[in-house]
Amino acid sequence: MTLIRTSLVLVCLAALAGCGADGEPVQPSLNAHVGVGGSSSYVGGSVGLHRGPFNLYLGF
Predict the structure, then answer these.
(1) Residues 6+ away with beta carbon under 8 Å from 20
(2) Residue 23: phi, psi to the nearest 5?
(3) Which end of the chain has fewer beta carbons closer than 10 Å to its terminal beta carbon, N or C?
(4) Is residue 42 a contact partner of residue 35, using CB atoms and an 8 Å limit?
(5) For residues 57 and 33, what is the distance between their CA atoms, to the nearest angstrom?
(6) Count of alpha carbons within 13 Å of 53, Cβ hemisphere only?
(7) CB-side neighbour CA atoms (13 Å) of 16
(8) Is the pLDDT of residue 22 over 60?
(9) Distance, CA of 23 to CA of 20 (rounded, Å)
(10) Averaged over 3-21, what is the pLDDT?
(11) CA distance 35 to 56
(12) Residue range 27-38: mean pLDDT, rounded
């Protein structure tokens, strides 16, 4: 029973730290664009996070 309780506490702490409860939340940014060419059009964008000197972006 102790192993299960310890595992549950570790999972809860990891979830709490992952949701921004240990500091102010990080607001994501969204960039979207639509392009139209002579014979085609396209849609693209990116979602990103910025915190201090670190940037993380995912393009689609």
Answers:
(1) 26
(2) -170, -175
(3) N
(4) yes
(5) 15
(6) 0
(7) 7
(8) no
(9) 6
(10) 76
(11) 24
(12) 87
